[in-house]
Amino acid sequence: MNPFNFFNKNKPNTNESQSGGSQVNNMVKGLFKNKLLIPFITSFGGFFIIIIAAACLIILPIAAIDNAINGINKATEDSSGGGFLESLGNFFTTGYWGSSEEVFYHVVGDKYKYYISKGIQVDAPLVLSAVFIGNSVMMNTNSECTITETPQDEDSPDAPPEVQYDCGDEQTEQSYNDLRSEAIKLMEGMVDGNSVKSEEEYRQWLYDNFIENKLKAMGTKIPTDEEEKDQLFNDLIDQIYFNRDMYEAALNDFQDVDSGGTGVCSFNINSSAGLQTISNVKVRLLGCTAGGGSSGPLEDEELVDLEKYILGVTYTENGGAPDEAIKMQAIAARSFALTRSYGGKITTEDGYSVIQIRACTWDQAYCDPDKGCWSAGAGGEYGNTIHTGYDASKPWSKAPLPENDRIRTLVAETAGQVVVDKDGNVLNTPYMSDVQQQWNAMANQGKSVAEMVKKTYPNAVEVTSNCTGGGNGSLAGGPDFSNAAAWKSPSNPYAPSYYGQCTWFAWGRFYEIYGYDPGFNNACGAGGCGNGYQCVDGVLKTHPDKFVKSKTPTVGAVGSSDYNHNHVFIVTGINGDQITIQEGNLDGVSNSWNVAIKDWHTVTYSLSQIRMYYGDVTFANPKNPPK
After folding, report:
1. Less Cβ around it within 10 Å: N or C end of the chain?
2. What count of other Cβ atoms lies within 10 Å of the Cβ of residue 612?
């Protein structure tokens, strides 16, 4: 089914011109009109049912986050945070939330500005999702509020000032106070020192410090059985992240996003061991010495995925460049890193090819794009090692790269691309500041990356990539859920919000078999793609040279039901009239990862049975069936 039409799974979205916020708001209106009851949390003894008001409050955070996106962009550029706060306030000061823009400002604004000023990019959409989920009391906050604020405590300049509300009734005033306290607590729990916790760490923090009180406020009885309690807590955490992830969909007008992911890339490298072909590349960061050597692997630094490393280098080395120069920087940095491994050795560890790079300008200046970085001086120059974690107290520091920054998009467009020589081997691509300035000037003149490469590296033949999705063409067995490229974000466009859906399963299984994106989302325009019944059309439109349309399947085919049944599956075997398929979404809903990986089966039907179950089925048959 179309994950962006999940409240109306058998009806495609026909209004393709709506923005994400408009679509969500229309869904909310539909819930009221139809008096819909929905299952919110699967837990002990069945479903915990929330009536209309709570159902809407699951959707309202998504619309609020969507309406806030322009303000969030401005906040990353303006440390005052005014645009962010005003934009967020615009939604919450109408309809259900009251009419004073200052209300929401004082709920999250002070603490948010404080973290931004320290270069810590807290996940505001995630905080919003946690704050507003299940707050049915907020349906009664329609009144005007006046606000008084106590003077700032000089001994605690980091703490937001105390706020008092006068909204005309005690319930509304208490609601705003509770929301503000929750938002501050959630932000504080998200921050670890000078960086933001990982998703795994923050999920655990929510479990330990937030969920129980939230469930009690929602009127939910906490089970005494530890297993049931654990399931209930994790269900609510999944719902919070689901709302946050829906923001990503709203940001892109509910279209699937081309992540730029490349799956598995291989590179031909001339190293001290001779010609090597390497893949699954990780970078080990080394400390630097003033004399140009290395002090060895940096403590507390994990191996860095090659593409993340290239993003961090591009951000640090030439982040203010024009778009085409950003791409050139990324390609040169990738080629340089692959041919530069300190000591000339490329090792193999746990299935990864590991290259060693000094974390300073002796090699390349890398700043963790998600956590920021600091150095004892000059940003990695003259042997000053760059360390992960933004710290404004250090002589040099750099804040994390905002999630919506253009650099992330531009670097992703080059994923896996390297400069190669006449033999197809990765070319060493050194560069200094004068070369970078030359790239910037050429980009401003409208020159392409190809022209920059030709000008800078005379021995270069082309910019190319050798990347696949990791598909092995085999239909044997079942899915390999350890294959992140097939099943997880950013490669699988249905992950993580739609784990368990038939489209998520069929996309991942296709990717495992063929090694590339099936193109389910290319069947039509914005807002209407991604439904199971449209997947065959998407495959045919994306890969007309590889697949043909048919009413009878061959091995390796994608099968789509008709409009009313809205389903997609993969054909894995044929024996006479008996057709074996693999399909997901047996329980009809999205799930957590642990449930989704069990929510599929391999089953054999006759063609007439398939048509009985799924209506007027069509198939995209491969011209060259996999073995």
Report:
1. C
2. 10
CA-wise closest residue to 244 among 42, 553, 497, 620: 497
CB 571 within 8 A of CB 579: yes
Residues 591/598, Cβ–Cβ less than 8 Å:
no
Q: What's the pLDDT at 465?
A: 76
DSSP alpha helix (H) spans, 282-429: 306-318, 323-338, 406-413
Closest CA to 338 of 371, 364, 361: 364
- Higher pLDDT pick, 316 / 6: 316
pLDDT above 60 for 599: yes
Q: Which DSSP symbol is given to 107?
A: I
Token output for 610: 């398939």
What residues contact 15, with CB distance under 8 A and at least 6 apart?
Answer: 23, 26, 527
Q: What pLDDT was estimated at residue 510?
A: 94
Sign for the CA dihedral angle at 207, 210, 212, 216 comes to negative
Specify the DSSP element, H or E, that contains 270: strand 264-271
With CA atoms as reference, report the closest residue to 617 among 552, 543, 571: 552
Angle between helical axes of 82-92 and 52-77 (0-180°, round to 10): 160
Q: Is the model's pLDDT at 551 over the cut of 80?
A: yes
Q: Which of 241, 235, 193 is nearest to 218 (CA)?
A: 235
Look at the block and give the residue holding tokens 């799956």: 263
User: Max alpha carbon distance in the chain (Å)?
Assistant: 82
Q: What are phi and psi of 156, to 5 degrees?
A: -135, 70
Tens digit of each residue's pLDDT (9 = 90 or more) over 431-442: 999 999 999 999
Question: What are residue 346's phi and psi, to 5 degrees?
Answer: -115, 115
State residue 438 phi and psi, 5-degree precision: -65, -45
Helix (H) or strand (E) holding 373: strand 373-375
- Could you give the angle at which helices 110-117 and 170-190 cross, rounded to 10 degrees? 20
Q: How many Cβ atoms from other residues are within 10 Å of residue 520's Cβ?
A: 29
> What is the rounded distance in angstroms from the CA atom of residue 508 to the CA atom of residue 289?
46
Provide DSSP, 287-299. EE-TTS-EEEEPT
